[in-house]
């Protein structure tokens, strides 16, 4: 069967091409009966819109650039699933890049995507990003950008995050109620939004339960748990303290699983010697030895919402001053790694 065009549909139904085009886009200018006729005929003839022609006509590429730290992370892979589910339904294509926690890669990927004329960007900052000029300049030029998970305070736009404070507070409180008093906190570089928010929840839970905050129990990991040597050295240093921790709360997916691996290699018994709770969206946390107590973020829903907000900026640019920061509630799944609660 030859490819059918809008002109063919218009000729068959004795309509103008502009009417058919508007009807296929569900325009309010076209009456319902005409829309029905056009839609049914298009389906019958297996009409498929030409994305290149559409982009040329609308001055849009119908593509979205996504830059995340890494895909091999349960949280980010679920986030992408949410983004793509909305993008597909709305006729947009998604181009995904990984920064691998590198500021230089993040800038290079951003420049490439802009050179390919994406309609907007969805960004989760790398752990080494402190200079935001590359994003600020693009937004000044009118490029829609929405930030996810790791978000900058300095840039006014839509942001989608988890309620990191409450998630961290609940995890720390769980360990306290399990009888633990020397609770260590493993986290990412201090300038990341997720670091400051999760650290604040940890500190507040200690304070509310009469436990003094002690900086020696906090470890910042420059690579967010990706560097096995850094993980090993940091956790060893904690366990060699005169009063080593009796619990560890880790603030990222990589740190959670990495911490468990290091404790096992060091012959530290979990949870007998050290109880463990971590932020992770791993679907196999219950298969670890022991099963890992986790703070879970609704990553799929966060990705869907981020995509919806970006589409709003793309298709309704006049509303760009009405920015939202949407915080999604986390959940605590208690398993054997923190037994005693």
Automatic annotation (TrEMBL):
Keyword Transcription in record: yes
Pfam family, one: LacI
Gene3D superfamilies named among the record's database cross-references: 3.40.50.2300, lambda repressor-like DNA-binding domains
MF (Gene Ontology): DNA binding
PROSITE patterns: HTH_LACI_2
CDD domains the record matches: HTH_LacI (cd01392), PBP1_LacI_sugar_binding-like (cd06267)
Keywords: DNA-binding, Transcription, Transcription regulation
Domain HTH lacI-type positions: 4-58
Matching PANTHER family: HTH-TYPE TRANSCRIPTIONAL REGULATOR GALS, LACI-RELATED TRANSCRIPTIONAL REPRESSOR
Protein name: LacI family DNA-binding transcriptional regulator
Organism encoding this protein: Dyadobacter sandarakinus
Lineage: Bacteria, Pseudomonadati, Bacteroidota, Cytophagia, Cytophagales
